[in-house]
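Propose amino acids for all 344 sites.
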């Protein structure tokens, strides 16, 4: 990892780095000194903004008071904790290693050592939960008084342990209607507590959105390090090989990261499509003036024309030059985006 960070120091062309994100997998299995080594290397080889957002994803079972104090000391200023649920029956269904009691304890520990910018992950649509339990899950979240919530509908990945257990009847099946029910409860209660629904799966107190994730949605270049990591420089996208052994072997070869990634130069149509798909997921929506200014009139005209029947059907909303989705419309975001994208 350290080798790749140094080898690709010119990827961002000296642009200031506003956010650093340790995430994907469980980076909190690294000890404090290992995270510090990576941070020091980034600071030594990249231009870092004055007040960067530095996030660590963590599972509750990897957190302790001393560990959290260490993270604060080395400069980590934002935590994203994978709580998933404050109820043991949900956690057992999801095969999580922590229990509900430790979930609550680790959030309090983080606050006690001085973390203020904290995000919690919750999963809804669980067959082990009903609307009453989901409401109580949200009660516990709001009682924690943290500024950010990421809430995801339970989705089954092919060949995952849970998927296989459901297939052989050892786990309860997932019901899509439960997810819709819980999503509607989530949107209502988040609004009642003053949270902005700023992206399909993300809610925050005003001014407390994830800067790192927002940069993705606004098309700001980023560099990713490690197996499967993606990078984007504004005109091309590249992604590292996913196999850990192959990635490590290539990093240690003479040409290093030169052949560790596949690369794709984006066409104007692909750039337009990515903008539409990403921005439609957010409260900021699609800026038609931006499309016209940055991509040309053929794309802005196309987008406006495609939007007309969607607006007429109540599937898409418009305010002046912005196209956006309401909470209810976000349930159908993928289908609406498909109607707006350029057919490649």
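Proposal:
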């Amino acid at each position: 990892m350290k080798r790749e960070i140094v080898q690709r120091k010119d990827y961002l062309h000296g642009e200031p780095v506003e956010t650093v994100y340790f995430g994907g997998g469980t980076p909190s299995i690294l000890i404090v000194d290992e995270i510090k080594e990576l941070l020091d290397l980034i600071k030594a080889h990249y231009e870092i903004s004055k007040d960067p957002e530095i996030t660590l994803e963590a599972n509750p079972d990897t957190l302790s008071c001393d560990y959290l104090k260490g993270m604060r000391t080395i400069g980590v200023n934002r935590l994203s904790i994978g709580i998933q649920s404050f109820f043991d029956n949900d956690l057992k269904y999801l095969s999580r290693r922590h229990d509900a009691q430790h979930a609550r304890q680790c959030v309090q520990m983080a606050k006690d050592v001085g973390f203020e910018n904290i995000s919690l992950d919750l999963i809804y649509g669980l067959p082990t939960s009903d609307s009453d339990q989901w409401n109580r899950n949200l009660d516990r979240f709001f009682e924690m008084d943290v500024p950010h919530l990421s809430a995801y509908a339970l989705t089954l990945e092919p060949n995952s342990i849970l998927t296989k257990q459901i297939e052989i009847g050892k786990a309860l099946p997932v019901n899509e209607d439960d997810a819709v029910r819980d999503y509607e409860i989530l949107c209502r209660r988040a609004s009642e507590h003053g949270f902005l629904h700023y992206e399909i799966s993300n809610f925050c107190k005003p001014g407390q959105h994830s800067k790192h994730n927002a940069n993705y949605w606004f098309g700001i270049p980023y560099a990713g390090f490690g197996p499967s990591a993606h990078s984007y420089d504004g005109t091309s996208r590249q992604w590292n090989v996913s196999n850990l052994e192959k990635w490590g072997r290539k990093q240690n070869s003479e040409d290093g990261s030169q052949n560790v990634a596949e690369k794709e130069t984006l066409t104007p149509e692909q750039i337009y499509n990515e903008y539409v798909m990403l921005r439609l997921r957010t409260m900021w929506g699609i800026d038609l003036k931006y499309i016209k200014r940055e991509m040309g009139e053929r794309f802005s005209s196309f987008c406006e024309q495609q939007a007309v029947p969607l607006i007429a059907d109540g599937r898409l909303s418009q305010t002046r030059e912005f196209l956006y989705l309401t909470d209810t419309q976000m349930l159908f975001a993928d289908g609406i985006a498909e109607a707006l994208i350029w057919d490649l």
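The mean pLDDT is 93. The CA atoms of residues 43 and 90 lie 40 Å apart.
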